[in-house]
Amino acid sequence: MLWSRIVRERSLSPFKAFAAAPAVFGALRAAVSAALFFATAGAWRTAAATLPPVAARAALRIVAAALLLPAAAGAPAAFAAAPTPYAGGGLFSASGELRAVDPLLTIFYNASTFGETRPCPTCGNGTYGGMARRIGLFREYRNAGKPCLMLAGPYEFTADDPFRFGHLAEKKRNAARPSAAEAVFTRKLQAMLQVNAGWISRNAAVWLHNDAGGIPAGYLEIGREPRDKILQTPAGPVGIVFFPEGPVPGKGPTPDQTRQVLEKGRKLRGQVPLLLGISPWGLVAEKSFLSEAGGIFDCILGGGEGVGFGFSLAEKVPGLIWLRPDGKGRAVNVLELNRMPDGKTPFVWEEGRTFNARLDFMGESVPADKTALELIRRQETK
User: Fold this and answer.
1) How many domains does the chain have?
2) Are residues 45 and 160 in the same domain?
């Protein structure tokens, strides 16, 4: 399935291919790691003697990722590599118990799931992701009484997958319209996430309105113009600007759309201590936008074409955090705020002091919601 998706989407960037095919590129990373090992056998033997086996494997992954990812169009060093044996451990212990994490506010973010509901079955040493685990993670965190926001970015739904219903349609490669039964199933499952705010394309919104009676609570239908929303949290109000979909879904905006987003941001800036932007524009366009966003937005949560990563702090754009989803629902972006910006820009973001951020791959230690699992099983047997 993964290989057919790569062939079908061979027009995508290397970033998208890397994110969409962990099995294929996992083999490539392994080959690079092996080459490095034999090239410096003496040094590796000395280092490996001091490390347990799991740590040694993790070190090989890090070295391979450091060589491969920056070579792909200058990707930041913070880009996520393959899932590690400790994936999902940022929030849960090995026994599945929620860890004691007490920031002022925790923001969970996911995007680019493309309607995938089951865990990834070819992700190294186990399965990662899945809607039932994400629902279970959110439920456990809420039940713990921790201040948090659950945000959903672009392309979470089957019908708003830009690679099936977007720019590939221009080449007459459009997929068949999803069924009404899938719309009802999708709406029920997404509603179980109980997101505080979510981005949904006009195409997916029309599908759900026609076949499932409407979109899930919390989602805003986004077309060619930006929208905004202010959420009240225990840490203070949080403003969100939902970036519009560009002329080509999953890719960059027009100059006029960029101007509209900046105007929305400036209007909200004085009303909230924390201002977020949720983007469907893809990695390349988002990176170009950072210099304009600085001094207005505190954080850009990405979406669309491109690889995912825990966070990036641009040296030339102080006060701005940029993060992107892994895609296919394998992981969740987690942004923990230990201090809230005071509205004065640029705010100084310091990892470990004012914030922590990561891409948490949801492994077996993340408890899956049983109701969601049953709903998925019933859908698969129809």
Assistant:
1) 2
2) no
